[in-house]
Every structure is written in structure tokens, then in C-alpha cells.
Specification:
single chain; alpha/beta; Rossmann fold; four-stranded parallel sheet; about 20% strand; globular
Length: about 120
């Protein structure tokens, strides 16, 4: 079982330009041998289908351990995010410069609260 997770050593990010740029400057950027990136910059022109496609791709890749997504971007594909139940890659909703974090919208936090009966 542990061998299935051994190759998961990348972070992926779906977010606005500032968030993605900051994380790329921190060193998370990677383009694999198939020219697939581990990041997607979302702006006002990005189609919801493109966000869902990137989410699907990142959650199916065997080399990604954590998927970071701006919470305001996650809201655009909320049903897809809420359906995601896998352990790996771990899904974390993060704030952005213009959109503060709202715990009441976080799918993982909602699931934890349900487990503890809050």
C-alpha cells in the first residue's frame, strides 16, 4: 500500500495569477515528459470546463501528493470538489489576495464537522 504513495512528491495548484505565481516562485512548478504542467492559472476568461478538466487531471495523476485550489475557484466547480473523497492527492482550499478564506465553504472542513457531529 505504501508503495502506491511513494511517487507522490509534487504539489499542484489551481488558482489566480498571484497565487500560482507565488507558488511557482517558491519552486512547485513542474512540466513532465508529456508536457503536462502541475498548475493552472484561472482568470475571468477561464472556462469552468477547463477548471474541471485540470482538477480531474491533477486528482488522477500518481505523482501529485497535494492539490491546492483557491477557494473562490473551488466555488466555480463546487459540486466536483464536494464529490472528491480520495485521500491522495490531499485537497486543500486556500485563500487568495482578493478573496479571504471562508471556513463555511470548505468541503474538507464540512466533512470533518459532519464526522464530529458539529
Amino acid at each position: 500500500m505504501a508503495s502506491a504513495y511513494r511517487n507522490r512528491n509534487l504539489l499542484a495548484v489551481i488558482g489566480d495569477e498571484d497565487s500560482v505565481t507565488g507558488l511557482l516562485l517558491a519552486g512547485i512548478g513542474q512540466i513532465n515528459e508529456h508536457q503536462k504542467k502541475n498548475f493552472l492559472i484561472v482568470d475571468s476568461k477561464t472556462q469552468v470546463s477547463s477548471i474541471e478538466s485540470a482538477f480531474q487531471e491533477f486528482t488522477e495523476r500518481s505523482d501529485i501528493a497535494i492539490l491546492l485550489i483557491n477557494q473562490h475557484v473551488a466555488e466555480k466547480i463546487r459540486p466536483t470538489v464536494d464529490r472528491y473523497q480520495q485521500t491522495f492527492p490531499a485537497l486543500l482550499e486556500i485563500p487568495s489576495k482578493d478573496h479571504p478564506y471562508d471556513p463555511s465553504k470548505d468541503s474538507i472542513l464540512k466533512r470533518v464537522q459532519k464526522l464530529y457531529g458539529d
